[in-house]
Design a protein that fits this description.
Layout lengths: L2 H7 L4 H19 L18
């Protein structure tokens, strides 16, 4: 399920859903080795997701 469905339709807690999505995004960036993009500063290795 996507973020909209979970928060709006399933009425799940916003913070928990966003934390889950941040974890998923962090994994994707790490696996791809994707560097940070503008306007963030350049990174050595994968861009950290906070």
């Amino acid at each position: 399920a996507d973020t909209f469905e979970r928060i709006v339709l399933a009425r799940q807690p916003i913070r928990a859903v966003l934390d889950d999505q941040a974890d998923a995004l962090r994994r994707l960036i790490d696996e791809a080795g994707a560097p940070c993009w503008a306007p963030d500063a350049a990174s050595d290795g994968p861009c950290p997701v906070n």
